[in-house]
């Protein structure tokens, strides 16, 4: 098991944001988490990456207990997080953004004397190819399209060789074509990484959910199953009804 979670609970100001008795992920599994606003999806990823401390519970990554570790230590162990907000350096080229990400993996001291080796250059080109940005490696990141910026963000995380990738709403704001390409990219990445994706667009979920989908509601596990199981589950349909949001797009 790549990730295993038991009895995780966290409250904010007396309101329970998450109460999850069990969750597990296999290596190279791509899991999609859905659920309406406030279901606890981001809180869950925040706990896994060490950004939020739970009140109770255990998280095991490759059988190692990681609760209480800092975000940096957890990242070093191999958990990479891609947030929804952009974090690329807009004034740097795509290549330099990737190079910087690769440098950040090294210790501070060694990076002072860091020179990009042929091996590293090859790795940057390999990742650029994967994320579809080979032709724009020398472009300024700020000039990329929204979709390209998101792929660069994914590339930056991938360059750090995480065993587990946590990705918040990767297709938000993308065109249909960009969304589809993002889905194909995540499917390809799942050959080498465990991936947890939070997503709202059901057409996109259908494209990438080859295994289980986890549905959270009000901080609790509502149901887990194949895409077809959850799409036809009355509890899932009910939990979105009457909500003033556009989250269950294309259901
Ligand atoms: N730092 C915080 N302080 C106070 N309350 C918080 C904090 N983070 C999350 N919450 C609350 O915890 C609950 C779960 O929020 P969370 O953001 O995890 O849900 P979500 O499923 O990711 O929702 P969305 O799809 O809207 O992003 C919500 O009621 C939210 O208001």
TrEMBL record:
SUPFAM superfamilies found in the cross-reference section: P-loop containing nucleoside triphosphate hydrolases
Q: Which CDD domains match?
A: ABC_Mj1267_LivG_branched
Q: Which domain of life is it from?
A: Bacteria
- The answer to whether the entry has keyword ATP-binding is yes
Of the GO CC terms on this record, one is: plasma membrane
Q: Name one GO molecular function term.
A: ATP hydrolysis activity
UniProt xrefs under InterPro entries: AAA+_ATPase, ABC_AA/LPS_Transport, ABC_transporter-like_ATP-bd, ABC_transptr_urea_ATP-bd_UrtD, P-loop_NTPase
Where is the ABC transporter domain positioned along the sequence? 3-243
For this UniProt record, give its keywords in alphabetical order, as a comma-separated list: ATP-binding, Nucleotide-binding, Transport
NCBIfam families found in the cross-reference section: urea_trans_UrtD (TIGR03411)
Listed name of the protein? Urea ABC transporter ATP-binding protein UrtD
User: Which organism is this entry from?
Assistant: Chitinophaga silvisoli
Which gene is annotated as encoding this protein in its UniProt record? Answer: urtD
């Amino acid at each position: 098991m790549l990730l295993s979670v038991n009895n995780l609970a966290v409250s904010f100001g007396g309101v329970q944001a998450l109460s999850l008795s069990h969750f597990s992920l296999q290596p190279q599994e791509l899991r999609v988490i859905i659920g309406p606003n406030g279901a606890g999806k981001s809180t869950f990823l925040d706990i896994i990456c060490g950004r939020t401390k739970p009140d109770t519970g255990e998280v095991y990554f490759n059988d190692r207990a990681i609760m209480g570790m800092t975000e940096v230590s957890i990242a070093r162990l191999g958990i990479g997080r891609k947030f929804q907000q952009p974090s690329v350096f807009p004034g740097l080229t795509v290549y330099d953004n990737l190079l910087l990400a690769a440098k950040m993996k090294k210790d501070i001291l060694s990076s002072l004397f860091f020179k990009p080796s042929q091996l590293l250059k090859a790795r940057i080109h390999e990742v650029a190819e994967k994320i579809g940005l080979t032709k724009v490696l020398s472009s300024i990141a700020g000039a990329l399209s929204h979709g390209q910026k998101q792929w660069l963000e994914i590339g930056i995380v991938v360059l750090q060789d995480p065993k587990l990738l946590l990705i918040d709403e990767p297709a938000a704001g993308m065109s249909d074509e960009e969304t589809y390409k993002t889905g194909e990219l995540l499917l390809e990445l799942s050959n080498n990484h465990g991936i947890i994706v939070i997503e709202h667009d059901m057409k996109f979920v259908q494209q990438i959910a080859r295994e289980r989908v986890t549905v959270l509601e009000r901080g609790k596990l509502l149901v887990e199953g194949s895409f077809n199981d959850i799409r036809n589950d009355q509890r899932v349909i009910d939990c979105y009804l009457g909500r003033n949001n556009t989250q269950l797009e294309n259901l």
